[in-house]
Design a protein that fits this description.
399 residues, Growth Hormone, Chain: A, 2 domains
Length: 399
């Protein structure tokens, strides 16, 4: 005989399995999308491509993901997370397998583009799985854990792809994301089971209404995230270069510190997510993070201008603070938009961030060429602009 306690325990354990699968799906996509960058040495040294050309080839997955995030979000809202994750990751694997057998750089770039377009499926769908299984008072923590997926995917790619590409070629290295993605696709198809109200019940509850028309809350969260992604990508893109060229660190030492800050940033996301659960608010801690980011980037600019060794400690703080808002905003978007609009809303959220992030390296590279303190100071303007844009918690979380 099954008791209520047994049922509760089973459901409690199952939500953590769903979180693990959501993380695995997002990690698998990241292995493909971010792991492509680790092919650059082999494409340049072994295959004779210039660094610029190699960079263009490995940028194709990122281009692909920007093209299809919203489209996958629409599909998630229509057919649900299970099929989207299974289909998307299977197509990513197919594109990666196809790239294994090509000797043409054009075809390789096309395979990476198509794989990126397919891998975008994991962004919205995996987030919705987490939101669907966790109650509001635990979603911030759960989404913070889920946000560790990208650093984990990058780590897996960094560990496996470069040595395989060096010893066995680019094609063999692309077997890594191919195998990871197809394995995850099968697991998602077999196990993923996101709870969602049926369409008739959702219509009676008003969950099918367009949340963008009801209030400006989603628009303001999207705008906030676009502004906050600027200092995040300034730090992500230029921390290593800054440590080596401005602070005189060796490449090895700088790499160790950047890796450490990535780990600290991942745990920072979990901490801020847990705080939002305790407060019962996503927007208050998001506002605190925006203010903290503004102050940190100003202090980084000043201490670097003064050539103070304190600037290194401030850079570590900046690396943690600037990545903290991602999970908060992502969770808030899913909650406000509800189970029948969150796919599109999360797709729009990520698309805006990717577009803004793609503009940061060239724009702030030009500023950094003049002065790193100038680049840091200018980046502090964006989180400052975000503070008044952040909405209040006017709407209770959707189930």
């Amino acid at each position: 005989m099954t008791t209520t306690e047994d049922t509760t325990h089973t459901a409690g354990a199952r939500k953590w399995v769903m979180l693990a699968l959501g993380m695995l799906a997002q990690t698998s996509g990241a292995v493909f999308i971010n792991g492509a960058a680790f092919l650059i040495p082999s494409l340049h040294e072994d295959r004779g491509l210039s660094l610029a050309a190699a960079g263009l080839v490995v940028a194709m997955p990122t281009v692909g993901i920007m093209l299809t995030l919203i489209a996958w979000g629409v599909l998630v809202d229509r057919i649900g997370e299970k099929l989207v994750l299974a289909i998307g990751l299977a197509l990513t694997s197919a594109a990666s397998f196809a790239a294994v057998f090509t000797t043409s750089f054009v075809v390789l770039g096309l395979c990476l583009l198509l794989g990126g377009m397919a891998a975008a499926s994991a962004n919205s769908a995996s987030g919705r799985v987490v939101v669907g299984w966790f109650p509001p008072e635990r979603r911030g923590l759960a989404m913070g854990i889920r946000q560790m997926s990208v650093p984990l995917g990058v780590a897996i790619g960094a560990l496996l792809i470069p040595p395989i590409a060096r010893d066995h070629g680019v094609g063999a290295a692309l077997l890594v994301p191919a195998i990871v993605c197809v394995t995850t696709a099968v697991a998602c198809l077999a196990i993923i089971d996101p709870p969602r109200p049926d369409r008739e019940a959702a219509e009676r509850a008003g969950l099918l209404a367009n949340p963008y028309r009801a209030s400006s809350q989603l628009w303001r969260i999207h705008s906030t995230s676009v502004l906050l992604v600027v200092p995040q990508y300034v730090v992500w893109t230029y921390a290593l270069v800054w440590l080596m060229s401005d602070r005189g660190w060796s490449a090895a030492s700088a790499g160790v510190l950047v890796t450490l800050t990535q780990i600290l940033g991942a745990f920072g996301r979990i901490g801020v997510g847990a705080l939002s659960d305790t407060l019962g608010s996503r927007m208050r801690p998001l506002r605190w993070v925006a203010v903290s980011t503004t102050v940190t980037m100003v202090v980084l600019a000043v201490t670097d201008w003064l050539d103070s060794p304190v600037s290194i400690a401030v850079m570590v703080i900046a690396s943690v603070v600037t990545v903290a808002p991602n999970g908060l905003a992502f969770t808030a978007v899913a909650e406000v938009s509800g189970p029948y609009w969150s796919g599109r809303a999360l797709g729009a959220q990520n698309t805006g961030q990717f577009i803004a992030a793609s503009m940061v390296p060239p724009a702030f590279g030009a500023l950094a060429a003049i002065s790193f303190p100038l680049a840091f100071a200018v980046s502090s303007v964006f989180p400052a602009l975000a503070v008044p844009v952040i909405p209040d918690d006017q709407q209770s979380p959707q189930p």
